[in-house]
Amino acid sequence: MTAHASVDGIMARLTGMVGERATRAPGVLDGHGRSEAYHAPRPPDVVVFPDDADEVRRIVRLCAETGMPIVPFGAGTSLEGNAAALDGGLCLDMTRMNRVLALNAEDMDVRVQPGITRKQLNAQLRDTGLFFPIDPGADASIGGMASTRASGTMAVRYGTMKDNVLALEVVLADGRIIRTARRARKSSAGYDLTRLFVGAEGTLGVITEVTLKLHPQPEAIFSAVCAFPDLKAAVDTAIGVIQSGIPVARIELLDAMMMRGVNAFAKLGHREAPTLFFEFHGSPAGVAEQAGLAQAVAADQGGLGFTWATTPEERSRLWQARDNTLYAGLGLRPGARAMVTDVCVPISRLTECLSLTARDIEESRLIAPVVGHVGDGNFHLLILIDPADAEEIARAKAFHGRLVERALALEGTCTGEHGIGVGKIDFLEQELGEAVDAMRAIKQALDPHNIMNPGKIFRQHAGEGGSRR
Amino acid sequence: MTAHASVDGIMARLTGMVGERATRAPGVLDGHGRSEAYHAPRPPDVVVFPDDADEVRRIVRLCAETGMPIVPFGAGTSLEGNAAALDGGLCLDMTRMNRVLALNAEDMDVRVQPGITRKQLNAQLRDTGLFFPIDPGADASIGGMASTRASGTMAVRYGTMKDNVLALEVVLADGRIIRTARRARKSSAGYDLTRLFVGAEGTLGVITEVTLKLHPQPEAIFSAVCAFPDLKAAVDTAIGVIQSGIPVARIELLDAMMMRGVNAFAKLGHREAPTLFFEFHGSPAGVAEQAGLAQAVAADQGGLGFTWATTPEERSRLWQARDNTLYAGLGLRPGARAMVTDVCVPISRLTECLSLTARDIEESRLIAPVVGHVGDGNFHLLILIDPADAEEIARAKAFHGRLVERALALEGTCTGEHGIGVGKIDFLEQELGEAVDAMRAIKQALDPHNIMNPGKIFRQHAGEGGSRR
């Protein structure tokens, strides 16, 4: 616990360093304690808006000296309380560090500050013929996406953040700044520190620069939606498309309830049935070939026909609907908060996992629309809960526990892309057992005083609670 | 140093565990101290051939108890002394653990023991419609390939080992067995231990199982060679192909001297000029489109025309020639050993790096044919040295140092795929500076007594020599 007296002293020193960019204004603290999910707000004691890596380094040194926890913060779109200030402490809001530092168009890479969001980055890339494909839906910051190993709708074609980060600059817990790799496309130079910090949720250091792979803007893009008579037909189509080796760029599943939410939210008129959203990237001939193959797979499964979005405007409208599923889902039950699940299973087990889960939702009397990156075997339920109804929350948590158990039994993971945060600590232990001890040993080695986003991913000592507050 | 008295005692206990699969026969020790490169042989004190993970666990516990170094050994094809027994100790030869444990064709993944070689694996996959694409040339073991983060000719299309290992089973230095991940295609469940052990060269634990991604056997494959008037035209063609986004499966550069070696070794009649070897994978229409685009880029650069290998036999002959460049290169100077360099630079800097290097080779009076995975910016020189000529070896080492400095100045790495081993320890310090301290901290946390392949990648304590012998 951070005593207020010491916070006052630290605040004075921070003000000396960065002036008004260190603040204890209650509105700002409150805004940095909230998240988009159901977790209770946990505001920090102070928020600082650094301008560069050297400021981050000096702030981290001050925290190391005083034992104050540090919670890095990007766009605030994480879903597992990943940036909650469990023990109070200092929130490092990285949003002022949002510049493109070096674009290497010939090498298809870019070096950015971590506070830039994916949409800001793509806006700056528009005229280069290149783009950054990772799309988790929300307009998350690149640093936050790296920290949760985010993926989203295009991972099936372009990989996740682990595949698209070439190198990082990181401020370690003792204030040293390291670079994890050079700009070469591949390297066997020692331990893969890049991949260690990607997905570490800020518990091993503060990311101050990210070098990303970029991809050529596809020459042609086809998008389509296809409704199905039932969920199984939709899922089997997705599996068939992947197993045929069609290099689909996106293949997203929405169940009938989610389609109802999307129609209402975005004023659209889609059929309210289990639906796949497709996108194909390539040369005009290549895209036509891919689309034809996918249509044939869908027709075999009783698909009710492809509706094409041919103009950029139609396409953007189609995918905006998909990107807004969180808000569209919340619209199905005004006043509700969402508990968002994130299991991911081998694709051959997906039909079984989804059908057992559908039955469980019904038996649990929960409202839980489905949206899934089915090409990767990853799907989300938005369990819509009344935040004032303790019995319902308990019922939802019990359901979530069964869902994870089911996914693990099918050789899957409790989280495909949202991270462990504070919400899935016990699930991680179930999933990886003694491997979590190896993670603890690494954390202890790189952050011996446990100041870097403490209480996330695992409890540093067995038997410890999620928070010391 | 391991005292012989204690080796006798350990040998007795090993014999009790595994019988004749523990041996001190001089021929076996000698065979496990050699490598394909120029490094002096460093044989272990004992070689053990374990049959399963539980035996590995018991052997590791014995070594932990007695402080005996453990060096995991696969096919012995590494090039940087990665499996040299610098301090003697116990060599774990994994070649008996070469079974396929579980093939999941629907999910396109396979779980194997680490001793299986890539050719053994692909032979077993032949009738499944799937294949494992990573091809470092030599018939390396999968465990060894994971440990050096190997890549090779198809990385430009299919990625490296870091992209194709889904999960590992690892015996840690204290004898505990962990699994780093589940079988799901993606996960955000805690630190990416999979990627930490991939490329760790056996310094953090012994890999006992590997779960690999597989890929659909391409419907159509086109292969071709194209000679160029000079090296720059060949390299600029490779750069142009990559930058056009053509999803080429392989694009390999051989310089004129290397072509002479290949012709002599494989009794072929290729033009002895800088040459690109191409391969395209896809649907028949897609492959024709890719090949046409690449031909146009080559023609723009003055390429001397594509020669196609159309039948599987011709294709296999073409790529066998490429795969044997190490032996073909050695044939250019009978009795020589090869010092193999491995720098990798951003592709936009490749022409500059190669042309400066060509001049340096000449000025250094070295014989050094070039073979490169130019699509990734990675190339090798086989510096052919007389192992008895100390002056020439010193000249070659000085040249290698300048090559690495040049690559680092161009934002590249000292090793694209061979690893650091014992040969590039100082280069790693130059390349990553204080990041190497973070690697040391991780090593100390997971292997506090430094028994796992000691002396590789970095010196555990500053100022320490590469070997204590």
UniProtKB/TrEMBL annotation, chains A, B:
Q: In this protein, which residues make up the domain named FAD-binding PCMH-type?
A: 39-217
Q: What name has this protein been given in UniProt?
A: D-lactate dehydrogenase (cytochrome)
Give the family, as the similarity comment puts it: Belongs to the FAD-binding oxidoreductase/transferase type 4 family.
The Gene Ontology terms for molecular function here are: D-lactate dehydrogenase (cytochrome) activity; D-lactate dehydrogenase (NAD+) activity; FAD binding
Tell me which UniProt keywords the record has, alphabetically: FAD, Flavoprotein, Oxidoreductase, Plasmid, Transit peptide
Give the required cofactors.
FAD
From which source organism is this entry?
Answer: Bosea vaviloviae
EC number of the protein: 1.1.2.4
| UniProt keyword Ligase, yes or no | no
Pfam families cross-referenced by the UniProt entry: FAD-oxidase_C (PF02913), FAD_binding_4 (PF01565)
User: Per the UniProt entry, what are the Gene Ontology biological process annotations, in alphabetical order?
Assistant: lactate catabolic process
Q: Which InterPro entries match?
A: FAD-bd_oxidored_4_C (IPR004113), FAD-bd_PCMH (IPR016166), FAD-bd_PCMH-like_sf (IPR036318), FAD-bd_PCMH_sub2 (IPR016169), FAD-linked_Oxase-like_C (IPR016164), Oxid_FAD_bind_N (IPR006094), Vanillyl_alc_oxidase_C-sub2 (IPR016171)
